[in-house]
Design a protein that fits this description.
Radius of gyration: 15 Å
Distance between the termini: 13 Å
Shape: elongated
Order of helices and strands: HHHH
Oligomer: single chain
Largest sheet: none
Strand content: under 5%
Helix content: over 70%
Number of helices: 4
């Protein structure tokens, strides 16, 4: 079960930490920031490994969903049906890409965080 408060906090932390650490350390800093945000999500959620991974994955993918909505609205306003179609294709591609990359990193961090917390 997804705990939305933890997922939203993880999303905000992922944005902040990945931007700050990415500025100083480049790509590796972005990955470290996402991983640390996942650990915080796992600590907040507790439970088993799958619970932490699932909540971390949702936190990592939440940004893709927000970006997708912005693209759809902007594309529709800018170019009508053609803009909506193009934005839909880009949105699906973006969601899949972020699910595989960022979502997985935050999910692994969430799994480790839930193991560290020891809460059941």
């Amino acid at each position: 079960m997804v705990k939305w408060t933890a997922a939203f906090v993880g999303f905000i932390l992922a944005v902040i930490l990945s931007n700050v650490l990415g500025y100083f350390l480049g790509f590796i800093g972005i990955s470290i920031g996402l991983f640390l945000a996942g650990i915080v999500v796992g600590l907040m959620v507790g439970g088993g490994v799958l619970t932490g991974f699932g909540n971390g994955l949702v936190a990592g993918a939440f940004g893709a969903i927000v970006l997708s909505i912005i693209l759809l609205v902007g594309g529709t306003i800018t170019a009508g049906l053609a803009g909506f179609t193009a934005a839909a294709v880009v949105s699906l591609t973006t969601i899949l890409y972020i699910f595989v990359t960022s979502g997985f990193v935050v999910g692994v961090g969430g799994a480790i965080g839930s193991l560290i917390s020891g809460k059941d």
